C-alpha cells in the first residue's frame, strides 16, 4: 500500500535527516539564528518575570471566547507579518532580476536576482497560503469570536472547549508551516497546488506534504469553529434578540460560517486525495492510469471560491458596524443588507469555474459561470450603496476606524470592477494567470485587511478598556494606502503589459520602472508596519489617558457596547433584555444608557482546561509525523489524541457557579475599574484634520462633535 | 429602521435585564451543533461521490477491471441488512431511554454494535477478496475513487463502534446524566446518517457499478 519514497528513509526518523536542515542557505540560516535567539530571549524574559503560570492559567488553558479571540488575532497578526515579509522578498527579487541577461547574485546561488527559482516558488506558495488561511482567517475568526457572543447577549460560545480546540489546532497549523522554513522545504506549487506537479513523481520532497497537512489542520480548526458560531447564534441569543434585531456583523458571521461549514469538507477531501496519491500510490490526479487532473482543480475551487466569501463577508459585517457608528445613523436598509449577505453566500457556490475558464469547458458552461459571477455584483452593489446611504446626511466623524472602513470601500470598488472584467470569459482568456488577476484579488483581500484594521481599532477599547492612538492609526492608514497604491496599480498595468504571475525572472526590461515603483510601495508598507507597532506601543504607554466607558465611541449602536469596557469574563452581569434593533443606541436615546442591573442571579461558567492545548500539540505532531513519514510517531500521537478525547469525555466539565452576591461584588468592581471612563467625551476627528459636519438634523442640536446624543437627558 | 426606536417608552414598564432567563438548553444546543457536524460530513461524502462520478468513466479504469467485474451486490446486500438492523437496534435502545431502562439501552447498543462489527467484518473480508484478485487502489483512478468512497464510509462505521463502546462504559459508570443522554442522541444521528450514506453507496457504487 505505502509507496516507496525516493531517498533515504528509516523507521525511527522517517525521511528526517540532518541534511534536511538548510544550514547552508544564506537567507534561512541567519534567520534561524535570529529566531532562535529571539525565542531564547522571550522564554528567558517570561521565566525571569515568572509569568509562565500566569500565561498557562489565564491564556493557554482559557475557554473564554474573548481571550481566545485575542489569541486568534495575535496569531493572525504574526502570520500577516510573515506573509508580508514573503511579499517583500518577492517584490525585491523581481526588482533585482528584471531584464535580459543574468544579473543574479552568484554568492547566493541565483542566476537572476538573489533567490533561486525553487526558493522563490516556496515563497509565493507560502505567501498565498499564509495570507488567506493563516492571517485573514484567524483575524476574522478572532474578531467574530470576541464580538458575536457579545452582540447576541451570550456569556460565552455554545461550546467553549471546542472553541479552544479550534484555536490550538489552528496554532498547530501555524507551527507546522513555520517549521517548514527550517526543517525541509515548503511546497513550490503555488498555494492552491497544480496537478500533477504535486504528485510524488514530480515533487519528491516534503514540501507538498507540509502544504497538505497545514491546510488540513487549518480546515479542521475552522470547521469546528463554524459549528460553534452557528450553534451560538441559533441557540444562545438573549431574550428579545429576535432574528430581525440581530446586528449586521452577527448576520455576516452566520452566513460566513454556513459557508465554512459546508465548503471546508471539500478542501479536506481534495487534499486527502492528494495525500492518498502521494502516500498510498492511488491515481486520483495523476496524468496517467485514469486519473483526472482537472478533478483536483474543480474540487479545490469548489471550496476555494466559497472560502473567498467566507473571508469577505465578515469584513463586510465589520464595515457595516463601523460606518453607522461614525455616521451617527442606523444602517441604511437593514433587511436589504441581510438579504444581500445571504445572496452573496448562496451565489458563492456556483461560480468556482471562473478560476479556470481556460480549462476549456465550452461556451455554454463558461457562459453560466460568467453570468453567475456577474450576479455577485448585484448584492455587493446593494451593500456599497447601503453604506453610502448610511453616510449620506449623517454626522460623520473621520476617526481612524472610519478611515479604514471607507478605504475598504474604495478597494472593494476597484477589486469589484476588475472582477467584473475578469468574469467575462473572453477577457479572462487574455489576462488569465497574469498579474492583473493578482492585483485584482489583492484589492479584494486588502479590502478585508482594511476592514480588519478598522475593526481592531473600533473594538479594541471594548476588549481592553482603552483606545488605540488615533493619530498613529491615521498615519498608518495613509502609509498603508500609499503602499497599496504604489504596489498594486503598477501591477494592474504590468498585467496588461503581459507579465504572468509567479515570475522569478521577469525578462522584459520595459517592466523595470514599474518594479521599482512597486519596491518603493513595499518600503512604504514597511513604514506602515512600523507605524502600527508604534501605535500599539504609544497606546499601551498612554493607556491611562484613553480609558473609556461602556460606550467607547459615544455613538455606538449594537448590544456589545452595553457591557463594561474591558468586558468582564462573564460578559453581562445580568443578561440584557433586548428592546430594539440597535439596543445600545435605543437605550441611549431613551435615557437608559447609565442603567445597570440592581439585582443579580447566580451564573454558571465553564472551567479552564489544558486538554485543548494537548490535543493541539498532538495534531501538530501528527502533521509533522505524516510529513516526514515517521509512522510510529503519527500512530502514537493519533491514538493518544483519541484516548485524551475519551478521557475528557468521561471526566466532563461540571463548570462552576458564581453566586448572586459574588456577581454583585464583581459588577461593582468592574464599574469602579471603568469609572475613569465616565467623564470621557470622545473627541471627534482628532489629530489630522478635525471633522466635517455633513448635516445637522436640527438647529438646536449643537452638541460637540461625537458627543452622545442622549447624555444630557436626565435619568428616569 | 425598526419602529421600536420611535415609540415612546415608559421607564417604569421597560424591561432592560432578563430576570428569569434560564440560559440555553444544553441538550438541544448540543444536538443542534452535532446536526451541523452531520451537515459537514454530508459535504464530505458529497465531494467523494463527485470524485467517484468523475472517475467512473470507462477510461478512468485505465486497462484494469471495472466494478462490474468485481463487485458482489448480494454479498453487499448482507452488509446493507446488517447496517439497517443495527440502526433498528439502536432505535430500540433509544426507545428504552425514554422509559429510563438501563438494561434496554445497553442491550440495544450491544446488538447494534454486534451488527456493526458484522458490517465491518464483511467489508474487510470483501476488501481482502478484491485485493487477492488484483483489484487494488493503485491500479487505476477509478479503483482509487471506489476504495476512497467505500472505505471512508467503513472508517466512519469503525469510529461509531468505538463511540458505542465508550457510551456503554459511560452508561454503566454514570447513568443517564445530561452529558450521557446528549451523546446518545448525537450518536443516534451519526449512526442513522451513516446508514443513509450507505444507501447511496450501495445504489450508486455497488448496484449501478454491477449493471454498468
Question: How would you portray this structure in words?
Answer:
The complex is a heterodimer of chains A (716) and B (212). Chain A has a two-stranded antiparallel ribbon with strand order 1-2. Chain A starts with 27 loop residues before the first helix and ends in a 43-residue tail after the last helix. Chain A has 20 helices and 2 strands. By secondary structure, chain A is mainly α. Chain A is globular, with a radius of gyration of 26 Å. In chain B, 75% of the residues lie in helices and 0% in strands. Chain B contains 6 helices and no strands. Chain B has helices spanning 26-54, 67-70, 73-99, 102-132, 141-174, 178-211. In chain B, 33% of the residues are buried. The model of chain B has no long low-confidence stretch (mean pLDDT 93). The chains are: A mainly alpha (716), B mainly alpha (212). The interface between A and B is large, with 73 and 57 residues.
Amino acid at each position: 500500500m505505502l509507496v516507496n519514497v525516493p531517498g533515504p528513509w528509516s523507521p525511527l526518523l522517517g525521511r528526517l535527516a540532518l541534511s534536511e536542515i538548510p544550514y547552508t542557505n544564506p537567507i534561512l540560516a541567519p534567520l534561524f539564528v535570529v529566531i532562535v535567539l529571539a525565542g531564547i530571549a522571550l522564554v528567558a524574559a517570561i521565566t525571569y518575570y515568572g509569568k509562565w503560570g500566569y500565561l498557562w492559567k489565564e491564556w493557554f488553558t482559557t475557554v473564554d471566547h474573548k481571550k481566545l479571540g485575542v489569541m486568534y488575532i495575535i496569531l493572525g497578526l504574526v502570520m500577516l507579518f510573515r506573509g508580508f515579509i514573503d511579499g517583500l522578498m518577492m517584490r525585491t527579487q523581481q526588482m533585482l532580476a528584471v531584464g535580459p541577461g543574468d544579473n543574479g547574485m552568484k554568492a547566493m546561488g541565483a542566476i537572476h536576482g538573489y533567490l533561486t527559482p525553487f526558493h522563490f516558488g516556496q515563497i509565493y506558495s507560502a505567501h498565498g497560503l499564509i495570507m488567506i488561511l493563516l492571517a485573514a482567517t484567524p483575524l476574522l475568526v478572532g474578531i467574530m469570536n470576541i464580538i458575536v457572543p457579545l452582540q447576541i447577549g451570550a456569556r460565552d460560545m455554545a461550546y467553549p472547549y471546542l472553541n479552544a480546540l479550534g484555536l490550538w489546532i489552528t496554532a498547530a497549523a501555524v507551527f507546522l508551516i513555520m517549521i517548514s522554513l527550517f526543517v525541509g522545504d515548503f511546497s513550490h506549487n503555488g498555494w492552491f497546488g497544480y496537478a500533477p506537479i504535486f504528485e510524488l513523481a514530480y515533487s519528491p520532497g516534503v514540501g507538498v506534504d507540509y502544504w497538505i497537512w497545514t491546510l488540513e489542520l487549518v480546515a479542521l480548526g475552522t470547521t469546528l469553529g463554524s459549528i460553534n458560531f452557528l450553534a451560538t447564534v441559533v441557540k444562545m441569543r438573549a431574550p428579545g434578540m429576535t432574528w430581525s434585531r440581530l446586528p449586521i456583523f452577527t448576520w455576516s458571521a452566520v452566513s460566513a460560517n454556513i459557508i465554512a461549514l459546508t465548503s471546508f469538507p471539500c478542501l479536506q477531501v481534495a487534499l486527502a486525495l492528494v495525500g492518498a496519491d502521494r502516500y498510498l500510490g492511488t491515481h486520483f490526479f495523476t496524468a496517467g492510469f485514469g486519473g483526472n487532473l482537472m478533478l483536483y482543480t474543480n474540487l479545490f475551487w469548489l471550496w476555494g471560491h466559497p472560502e473567498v466569501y467566507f473571508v469577505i463577508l465578515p469584513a463586510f459585517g465589520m464595515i457595516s458596524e463601523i460606518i453607522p457608528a461614525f455616521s451617527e445613523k442606523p444602517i441604511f436598509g437593514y433587511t436589504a443588507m441581510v438579504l444581500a449577505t445571504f445572496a452573496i453566500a448562496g451565489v458563492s457556490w456556483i461560480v468556482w469555474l471562473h478560476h479556470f475558464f481556460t480549462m476549456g469547458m465550452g461556451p455554454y458552461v463558461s457562459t453560466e459561470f460568467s453570468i453567475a459571477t456577474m450576479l455577485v455584483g448585484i448584492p455587493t452593489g446593494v451593500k456599497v450603496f447601503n453604506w453610502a446611504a448610511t453616510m449620506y446626511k449623517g454626522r460623520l466623524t473621520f476617526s481612524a476606524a472610519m478611515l479604514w472602513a471607507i478605504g475598504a470601500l474604495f478597494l472593494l470598488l476597484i477589486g469589484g470592477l476588475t472582477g467584473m472584467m475578469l468574469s467575462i470569459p473572453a477577457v479572462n482568456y487574455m489576462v488569465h494567470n497574469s498579474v492583473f488577476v493578482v492585483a485584482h484579488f489583492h484589492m479584494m483581500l486588502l479590502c478585508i485587511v482594511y476592514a480588519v484594521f478598522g475593526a481592531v481599532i473600533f473594538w479594541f477599547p471594548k476588549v481592553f478598556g482603552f483606545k488605540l492612538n488615533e493619530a498613529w492609526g491615521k498615519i498608518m492608514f495613509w502609509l498603508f494606502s500609499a503602499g497599496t497604491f504604489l504596489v498594486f496599480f503598477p501591477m494592474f498595468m504590468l498585467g496588461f503589459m503581459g507579465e504572468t504571475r509567479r515570475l522569478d525572472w521577469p525578462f522584459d526590461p520595459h517592466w523595470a520602472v514599474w518594479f521599482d515603483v512597486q519596491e518603493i510601495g513595499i518600503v512604504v508598507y514597511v513604514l506602515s508596519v512600523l507605524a502600527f507597532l508604534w501605535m500599539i506601543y504609544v497606546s499601551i504607554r498612554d493607556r491611562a489617558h484613553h480609558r473609556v466607558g461602556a460606550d467607547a465611541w459615544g455613538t455606538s449602536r449594537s448590544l456589545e457596547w452595553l457591557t463594561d469596557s474591558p468586558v468582564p469574563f462573564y460578559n453581562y452581569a445580568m443578561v440584557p433584555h433586548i428592546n430594539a434593533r440597535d439596543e445600545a443606541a435605543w437605550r441611549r436615546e431613551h435615557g437608559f444608557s447609565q442603567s445597570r442591573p440592581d439585582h443579580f442571579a447566580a451564573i454558571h461558567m465553564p472551567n479552564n482546561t489544558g486538554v485543548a492545548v494537548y490535543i493541539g500539540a498532538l495534531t501538530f505532531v501528527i502533521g509533522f509525523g505524516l510529513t516526514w513519514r515517521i509512522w510510529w510517531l503519527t500512530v502514537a500521537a493519533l491514538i493518544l489524541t483519541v484516548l485524551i478525547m475519551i478521557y475528557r469525555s468521561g471526566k466532563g466539565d461540571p463548570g462552576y457557579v458564581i453566586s448572586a452576591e459574588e456577581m454583585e461584588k464583581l459588577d461593582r468592581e468592574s464599574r469602579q475599574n471603568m469609572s475613569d471612563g465616565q467623564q470621557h467625551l470622545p473627541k471627534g476627528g482628532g489629530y489630522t484634520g478635525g471633522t466635517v459636519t455633513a448635516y445637522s438634523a436640527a438647529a438646536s442640536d449643537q452638541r460637540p462633535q461625537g458627543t452622545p446624543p442622549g447624555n444630557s437627558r436626565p435619568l428616569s | 429602521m425598526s419602529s421600536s426606536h420611535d415609540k415612546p417608552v415608559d421607564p417604569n414598564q421597560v424591561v432592560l435585564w432578563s430576570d428569569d432567563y434560564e440560559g440555553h438548553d444544553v441538550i438541544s444546543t448540543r444536538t443542534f451543533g452535532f446536526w451541523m457536524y452531520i451537515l459537514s460530513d454530508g459535504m464530505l461524502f458529497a465531494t467523494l461521490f463527485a470524485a467517484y462520478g468523475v472517475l467512473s468513466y470507462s477510461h478512468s479504469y485505465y486497462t484494469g477491471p471495472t466494478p462490474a467485474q468485481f463487485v458482489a451486490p448480494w454479498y453487499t446486500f448482507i452488509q446493507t441488512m446488517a447496517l439497517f438492523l443495527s440502526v433498528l437496534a439502536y432505535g430500540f435502545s433509544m426507545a428504552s431511554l425514554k422509559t429510563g431502562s438501563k438494561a434496554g439501552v445497553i442491550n440495544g447498543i450491544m446488538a447494534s454494535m454486534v451488527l456493526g462489527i458484522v458490517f465491518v467484518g464483511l467489508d474487510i473480508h470483501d476488501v481482502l477478496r478484491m485485493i487477492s484478485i488484483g483489484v487494488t487502489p493503485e491500479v487505476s483512478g477509478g479503483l482509487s475513487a471506489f476504495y476512497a468512497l467505500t472505505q471512508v464510509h467503513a472508517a466512519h462505521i469503525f469510529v461509531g463502534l468505538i463511540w458505542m463502546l465508550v457510551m456503554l462504559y459511560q452508561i454503566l459508570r454514570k447513568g443517564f446524566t445530561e452529558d450521557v443522554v446528549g451523546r446518545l442522541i448525537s450518536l443516534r444521528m451519526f449512526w442513522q446518517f451513516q446508514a443513509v450514506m450507505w444507501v447511496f453507496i450501495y445504489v450508486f457504487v455497488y448496484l449501478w457499478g454491477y449493471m454498468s
